[in-house]
Every structure is written in structure tokens, then in C-alpha cells.
Amino acid sequence: MVLSLSLNVSAFATNVLQVNGLVKDATSGEPLIGCSVSAKGTSSGTVTDLDGKFSIDVTDATTVLVFSYVGYKTMEITVGNQTNITVNLELDGQELSQVVVIGYGTTSTKDITGAAKSIKSDDFNKGIINSPEQLLQGKVAGVNVVGTSGEPGARQNITVRGPGGVRTGSTPLFVVDGFALDNSGTGGATNPLTFLNPNDIESIDVLKDASATAIYGARGANGVILITTKKGKAGFSSVTYSGSLGISNLARKLDVFSADEYRTQVKAIGGTLEDLGGNTDWQEVIMRTAKTQNHNLSFSGGSGNTSFFGSVGVQNQEGILQKSDLDQYVGRVKINQKSLNGRLNIEMNLNASQVKANRPPIGTLLGTALSMNPTYAAYNSTGGINVFQGTFVNPLSYFNLEKDITTTNRVMGNISPSLTLFKGLDYKLNLGVDHSTFVRDIQSLASATPRQEGRLDTEIGENDNQLIENYLTYKFVNKQVNLNLLAGHSYQRIFLHGRNSSINKFPISDLEPIYNPGLGQDLTIANNKPGGYALINELQSFFSRANFQFKDKYLLTATVRADGSSKFGANNKYGIFPSFSAGWRLSEESFLKNSLFSDLKIRAGWGQTGNQEIPSKITQPLYTNTVSGTTSYPLSPTGAYPVGISFARLANPDIQWEVSTQIDLGVDFSLFNGALSGTVDYFNKVSNNILLEVIPADPVQPATTFWTNVEDMTITNKGLEFELNYQKRSDNGWSYSLGANLTLIDNVVENSPYSVIPSGSASGPGLTSATINGYINGQPIGTFFLKDHIGFDEKGQSKFRDVNNDGIVTDADRIAAGTALPSSMYNFNGDLGYKGLSLSINFNGISGNKVYDNTANANFYKLRLSKGINVTPEAILYPEEATTNAAPISTRYLKDGSFFRLNNLSLAYDLNTSKLGIDKWISQFRVYVTGQNLMVWTKYDGYDPEVNTDRTINGISSYGIDYLSYPRAKSILFGLNLSF
């Protein structure tokens, strides 16, 4: 008894109580692994082990324990005199209370009336990720993400419910922690979003229909993607580390002839054979097994009224093509401070990054390697790079001669104080600055073999994005009514400027031109003249939104935004963009109270959005100096120019906003207490008042082109979206979830005054600049406009269909031969868990689209094989084809681009830190292995069907063209996550 009394006194003196417990699923009774358990208002916290058990020290009996787990309702329990607690968490039916980020605010899933989807970090794609769009690929119905190539840091082309106008682009607006980004790139071919560390992202919300995006007005026509970064929690401190090592290899080689096949086939067609006795796979020669390292360290916590989150991340990614790599260094800090008894809340965000991309001459390397004689040896007897006589150049030599380096530094920060003026009324200020600089150097060394002059092209640029927003929100809530009002003003100024220079005739030297540009010669000739640019774009906006809810079942939303853009003339500077939407939660009605539905809501919305993604200053006249050929704008107060100046483009102050009008009808549902949930949406988006640069109809006009609205022309995107998810926890420790989404989409161009508006052109000898696809009346966007190849004539020459039956095949006989855009997109995903073991799998695919194989068109035909140039079996597919036949652009090289891909397969295990005896230092220890792009099923015989080489014509986006694109890799990733 004395000993017992002594122990009790000691425990009271140290004021520490140990609480043990078990956390279970309230329905199945199964333990919940990794459930967060924290002492409210302190830094003390832990997670449940593999058996759902926990142990935590608390200061006294008044301590409140908070239990939170993804997909379940959070529960708070006061310790009292309990030393052992059993907690039963209930499923959060369809996560109806899940927060969805919308423009200038948040709402819950059950209350939203527009088409929106929120993806949390646990559901992101896994693998080697260097930009946020890759996290979303296949995860959201209606969203299509296509990488331009497999190059590290390659741009991702992303569309939400299809492309919009012709010259207005298709990229959605990205908003990071309330800061609207400028979609302009920052040098090179790398993705401008690589400045964000994917590990810092808490959630990504996609706003799809006009009722959801109209709050962003002119910038919401192509959808809005809202990125929210992680933040700290007051009273709970943690340090986490995540690291991974990835190994990548070429996923699929092109089937060019081996040395033996080459010898046989060249002889078979009577071609010129030069046999040096070798057996070289030139694709393997220029490729490598690439390694990727990723390290992230984050710290979060706080106390009282202050919370913080900070992180540093480093990723070094090698490309599978030698000497191609991407290095990313990112740091982020987020601080939240409350004061004035909680009336004032200040959020500060700061992100700093450096991204360095090294690019070899990709097209040259691939084109040379695919064409090389396989009987040539890559290396000589001493191990050096072989040098060949004649036309062939060893592709390995280009690695040492060519260099393309882009370094981008970016700092983005915003501060957002919010003040409660009185109950229900809040004022918020959002001040932000996004400053990026880049330097790009493209260097060619002088060489005797291959013979070339030294050259250095340099571009230096800056992008300054400044944002000031002020807005008021008012909330009124009682038992039956929930009213939320928003009104505000926004001003954004974007200043783009840079300079460039080209210097050539560098001599052969040990000193590279990049380190001494003065070694170049002929600095006065036109090709070496330095240049530059400077653009200022301004956007001033007034916006308002009203959300009204009655009895938690009748929902109304109205939005209006007025945007004024410096890109438009004085006569039409402002555009007004309204939207309306409504929802009815049928599950709250008495006649459905006891039905199978946990939730059932129908939605309807209508709205308009504008688009200002057009070149700057197009409303102003453009002049040409008839002596130098340079173009510029009036700089004098009178706008007058001296003699020797002529019009290049006419002024048009009457240009109007391009407008997209969209309707959306949707149903959200969940059954069986939220275990099964889904969404169905129908959308119809019509873009009109299309902006185009056209040729004047009046032959005496002094300018060759001018900008105008094509009033009758429309571009329509319509379709259906389906999403279905099921999750289940069984009684024997197993858990699983299944999900799928499907998008059916159709788009059409109507009332265009032109037979075709070219959007994509060809590359290669004799093919350069020839039109491949474009905008055609009555056809989808990106329709291929080609001569129809129907075989060969008696001389073995290509034969094409005479569509108009005039006896002559010309460009007038081209046909609409299919589209580059898919008619359906789909995704399947599944998760399987047993205690600490989890397996996840993700498939995605598209169908109904075609790809133009420009690589085969330019390289793989019989004429080249007859000259000793290597090809694929495609070149000898037709015995009747003559070796003198050229390969003009036609449907011969148009191929099915549909595919079904095993995108992700991941296996993870959470170690029991308690049993390992390390739970005092490490609260979570997870190891995993992830496979990325493991398999693809497709009829396309190029490197990969998911490709989009940029072959833009006059600023009009191209689609579905494959020309010597960087191949995609197959990757295996090994990693671990630690929480301290």
C-alpha cells in the first residue's frame, strides 16, 4: 500500500496520465490502422498501430482526445477517469462534409451546385511526378491530360471538357492558395508548373462547369484548377521525411531492322548496301537506364494562435535519353496567425524554386539513330566514338556537340489577412507576387565531323505577376436558412519582358561559346542581331456571388463577374459573365428518408465565361520598317511614323470578348451509408464570337492581316460524365475500394467561313509546313485534313482518291479523316488493404482518336531503304510500291491512337513502430514500391500513342501529331515515408 501510494503521488507530481485504447470501424468492428490520435491544444499525438491500438500521454483528466481518419467522422472524447478507451468511428457518408475549394471560398460536397471534383493527396497518382497535372491524370471525369512527350519536365496539355476557341488556347486557369497564375511559359520546353513540389499539395479541386468557374470570369472558360498546399495544425508538431529512388527504361522500342534483317531487305529491293559487319542497336546506344532521386523534408506544428508548415524538396531526374535531365529544388513556408481574439487571421505563403533542364538535340538524335546503318559499330577499337565517311553521322557525337540548358528561378508569395468586422461579415485582402526569371542557352560547338559552325543562342526573360484582391463575405445561418454573400474587386498586372541574341561562326576551341560569347564572329550581320520583347497585360475585375440554402435541401447559387482587360480596345474593354445554378437534395425529403439513398441531389446550371488568352496589343496597328523589316507599335504621342514605315496589321478597337455559354445537368448520389457513391453529368458548352487573325477581304487594304470576331462561327463541346466509387471494410481485417469514371465527349466546329483553319503541320524532308489537321466545318476540333491513300498505280507510285472526280488529285481532294481528340476517356482504380499492407492499381485509357505518325512519314518508306537508310517493316509492307515512290502526307500514316494503360501499381507496408520499439521517435514508418507505365495496350506502333508534338501553326494549337517525340519510360520506384 505504501508503494502504491508512492506511485500515485509520483504520477500526480509529474502530472502525466497514460491512456491506452483501440479505434474501430463502428459498422464492421474492424480496427482502423493509422488513425490520428491527438491531445487537443497540445503537440502530443500518435497514430494507431496495425491492431488499431494506441497509447498516448496526457497532462490531466480534462484533456480532450481528437480521433480523425480519412473517410470517417472526426470524434472528440474527454479523458476523464478513463485509462483505456475504445472508440468507434462512423463512416462519413459519401464524405458529405468533405470540404471542396471553390473560387474565393469553400463549401461542402453536399452543398455544391456546380460541377466540381476534389482530389485529396491520398488519391493522387504515384510514381515519378514533377508537376501537379500528372497527379490528376485519369482521376477526374472530363479532364484529359496528355504529356507532349516522355521528356523529364515535359509540358502537359490539359483540357477540361474539351478545347474552347481557336486562338484562345485550352489550358485551364491554375490557382495556388488563392493566387491566380499566368499561363505563360517561362523558357524552354519544360512545364511552367514544375516550380510546385507535388509533396506539398494537400488537395486539387477541379471546377468544370460555368456555374462553378464564372466567378473567375474571363479566365474560367477552359475550367479552373485550384491547388491547396498543406498547412500546419496548432498543438500538433511533426517532422516527416519521404525519399525514393526510381529506375526508368525505354518502355518500347521502334521496330527498325536489325543488322541481319537490314542486309536481307536492302538486297531484296536492289538497294545500296554498305556492310561493315557490325550489329548495332542504335536506339540502345543513345538510351540509358535512368535514375531518379527524390527527397522531401517537412515540418509542421504550432501552438495557441500560430500554426506553420515548411518543406524542402529535391528531385534529380535523369531522362532515358543520355544527357537529358531535370533538377528541381523547391522550398515552401506557410504560416497562419490568429489575433484579436480570433477576429483577425493572417495567412502567409512563400514558395521558392529553381528548376534546371538539360536537353540534348532530341529530334536530331532520334532521327539519326532510327536511320543509322545497323552494320556500323558505335565505338572504335580503342573505345572512342566511331567516325564514319559519307552521309552517316554517329549520333553519339551530338551529345558532345549540342547543349540546351534552361535555368528557371521562381519566387511566389502571397499574404491574406482576414478580419471579422462583426458577426457574419468578414473582409479579406489578398496580396500576391509571382516573379520568375529564366536563362536559356542553346549551344552548338564547331566541328569538322560532322561539319558545322559554332553557334550560341541565348534568351533571358522575366515574368512579373502582381495581384491585389479585396472582398467581403457575409454569412447568415439559422435553423432553416443558410445565406452566403460575396462581393469583391481584383486587379492583376503581368509584365513579360526579355531579350535574346544569336551569335555564330565560333571557331573550334576548348572554350565553349557559352562561357565566352565574344569568340563569335560577324556580329553585325542580320542573323546575329539581338532582339527583345516587353508586354504588359492588365485585368481589373468586379465579382459577386450569392449562395442560398433552405432547410438544407434547396440550394441556389448566382454569380456575376465583370472583367476589364488591356488586351481589348476601348470600345469593348469590359465583359460581363453571369451564372446561375440550383440543387435539390431529394434525400432530405420525407418520401426518401428511409430509402436506399444516403444522399441524392440533382443539379442544374447555366453560365457564361469569357476568354482573353489572345496575343497582346492585337487591337493596335502593327507597322513594318521597309528598310530593316522589323515590326513595332506607335511610340510617339501622335502615333505618327517617319517615311519608310508601312502597315503590317490594321487596328481594330471593336474586337469583342470570345464567350462560352454552358449548361450542366447533374445527379449526385450515395447508397448504403455512403459505401457506394457516384455522379452523372451532362454538359453542353458553346463558344462563339470566335477570335481570328484573318486576311482582309478588301484587296486595297494596306495590311496583310487583321484581327476580328467571326460572329457566326461556333465551337461546341458536349458530353456525358460518369463517376462511381465503392468502398468496403470487411470483418476479417480486409478493406477494399473500387472506382471508375467515364467521359463521352463530342465537339464540332460550325459556320466557319474557311474550308480549313490549319492547326498542325508536318516536319521532315519535303514535308515541312504542310497542313495535317485543323478546324473544319461540321467536324471535330483537330480533324485530320488529308489526301486519302488508296494504294499504288501500275508504276508503284502512291495513288489517292479523286474526291471531286475531276480527274486530277489536288489539295481540293483532301478529306476529313478523323480527329486527334478522343471521343471517350476512362479510368479504373482499386485499393486493397490488410492491416499494414496495401495494394493500389490504376488504369486509364482513351478511344476514338487518331495519331498522325509524322516520324514514319518522314523516315520509314522504301525509297530511303534503297539508299541504305534503315527503316521499319512498315516501309516494305507493300511489294507493289516502287523504290522511287516518295511519301507525301496522306491517310497512309494516320493511325488509331486508342490505348489502355496500366498507369500505376503500388504496394506499401506500414511497419508497426511499437513492436519495433521505435514508436517514441517514429510514429509512422512506411515502405513502398511503385510501378509506373508498366503496360500499354494499343494498335499504335510508335513509341507511345499518348503524344502531342508541338506543330502549332500561327499560334493555333496542334493535336495528335507524333514527330520524333521523346519516348516514354517504364519506371520502378522504391521509397519510404517517416513521421517523427
Outline the structure in words.
The protein has 980 residues and is mostly beta strands. Helix content is 7%, strand content 49%. The protein is built from ten helices and 50 strands. The strands form ten sheets. The protein has a 22-stranded antiparallel barrel. Strands 10-15-16-13-14 form a five-stranded mixed sheet. A hairpin with a 4-residue loop joins strand 35 (706-729) and strand 36. The chain is globular and about 95 Å long.
Task: Provide tags for this entry.
mainly beta; Ferric Hydroxamate Uptake Protein, Chain A, domain 1; 49% strand; disordered N terminus; 3 domains; Immunoglobulin-like; globular; 980 residues; Maltoporin, Chain A
Summarize the structure.
With 980 residues, this protein is mainly beta. It has 10 helices and 50 strands. Mean pLDDT is 87; it is low at 1-14.
Q: Structural class of the helix and strand makeup?
A: mainly beta
- Beta-strand share of residues: over 45%
- Report mean pLDDT, rounded to a whole number: 87
Our count of helices gives 10
End-to-end C-alpha gap:
39 Å
State the share of residues found in helices, binned by percent.
Answer: under 10%
CATH homologous superfamily assignment of the largest domain: TonB-dependent receptor, beta-barrel domain
Rg: 31 Å
